[in-house]
Amino acid sequence: MQLWRIFGLQAATSAERRATFWVAVMYFACLASTFAVRPLRGQFGVDYGVYGLDWLYTLTVIGTIVLVVPFWWLANRMPSRRFVPVALHVFTVGFVALAAWLPAIGDYEWQNAPVFGQVFWGGFNAVNVAVPALVWIHAVEHFGKLQAKRLFGLIALGGTLGTIAGSWLSGELSGGGAPLWAVPVVAAALLQVAHVAFRLSQRSCLQLEGGDTTTSFDRGGLLGGLKIVLRDRRALQIAIYMMLVGFVATAFYAAQTELVGEQIAAGRQQHEWFADVGFYGNVLVLLLQLFWTGRMMSNWSAFAMLASLPIVSIVGLGLWSLFPTAVAIFGLQVVRRGTQYAFEKPAREVLFTPLEIGAKHKVKFFVDTCALRIGDLLGAVVQVQLREAGIGVAGIATITVAFALVWIAIAWSLGRAQPSSSPAIS
């Protein structure tokens, strides 16, 4: 019983406990799968070079349109009990196909198959959005609003543990000298673990009182979300906010791509570097979620939470300009990840709560995919152009700080109008 109190489950029914456990396991496996592959994607970015980031982020936008748009179209037209397992199997096949192709590049020799590397980059960035969404498509169909407030935090905790496990596995495989194809094979196996957890959760989910498995709603779409963004001032501000999230993040990604390429020679060591960033960054997220997030959400203003990431980013840009090393950018990326997922993202999710559920899903889909990816692409273009113009680190950092200040201004406007401070996890 003490364990139930620690996790806030003392008032939960047995069906709620079982459903929460298995959905959390599903989220754990899904995020462990994608985070196992992410360091390999990061190493390819280093190999491709910082001056090619604008093209790589163009491929990300293309991959998002090609995969994520039909993904949501099908999600809106199929019940989760059918759509989720089909999607998990399709993504599993994708990771197996990646494993089959990886021997062609030898030991991180992407020049042997350059087109394959570019397809991998764009495709994985789209899969990285779609796989975690499967968990919430399943969860929101069965958990009622009150159940979501009590139990979704535990499901999110399962996901955080998955990010830690996936990053650790990737680093261990690379550091242990395993062949490259072992990474996507592990990712594919983890997706099948997620499928088993999904199946095991179904009976308990159907026993929940409060969920609505009969009424369907539109979970989102680019055109529907765009229409709302264009006519609603608040939705437009959220979209601009998300574009700036991606824009500034790309500055740090460009810096790490440049510095890791210059200061860490071997592809396997670069892979381990990215895995370690993911591991330590997500351990920090876990600690902050357990001991600080709830307290901050209750005591800090919405503006303070929303502005936490741009403020940390401004400090980080200053430190990067003073200490342009792979070690410094490692620490900055760890701190930025902790700040984003423990403070800024929970506050950002609250921004959608005033919207009715149909509008919420349309706007959220648009800003989390299209707006964020456009911000990534614009940031990549600007970072490449600044370097091609011969502007040094201090100049690039100063220009990026100007965008971060605009980001804070948008956070101020959104936070001032925020009606609630309770987190909404999705």
Describe this structure in words.
The chain is mainly alpha-helical. It has 2 domains: 14-216, Growth Hormone, Chain: A; 220-421, MFS general substrate transporter like domains (Growth Hormone, Chain: A), CATH 1.20.1250.20. It has 14 helices and no strands. The protein has helices at residues 2-6, 14-48, 53-75, 80-101, 114-142, 145-175, 182-206, 222-231, 233-263, 267-299, 302-322, 326-350, 357-388, 393-416. The chain starts with a helix and ends in a 10-residue tail after the last helix.
The gist of it:
This protein has 426 residues and is mainly alpha-helical.
Based on the model shown, name its key terms.
Growth Hormone, Chain: A; disordered C terminus; 0% strand; mainly alpha; single chain; 426 residues; globular
Overall structural class, as computed from helix and strand content, comes to mainly alpha
Q: What is the approximate shape?
A: globular
Question: Mean of the pLDDT scores?
Answer: 89
Strand content: under 5%
Q: Given this structure, which CATH class of the largest domain is correct?
A: Mainly Alpha
Radius of gyration: 21 Å
Distance between the termini: 28 Å
Could you say what the CATH architecture of the largest domain is? Up-down Bundle
Give the SSE order as H and E letters: HHHHHHHHHHHHHH
Query: How many separate domains make up the residues?
Result: 2
Helical coverage, percent range: over 70%
Question: Residue ranges: pLDDT <50 for 5 or more in a row?
Answer: 420-426
CATH topology-level fold name of the largest domain: Growth Hormone, Chain: A
Q: What characterizes the major β-sheet?
A: none
Question: How many alpha or pi helices?
Answer: 14
Number of strands: 0
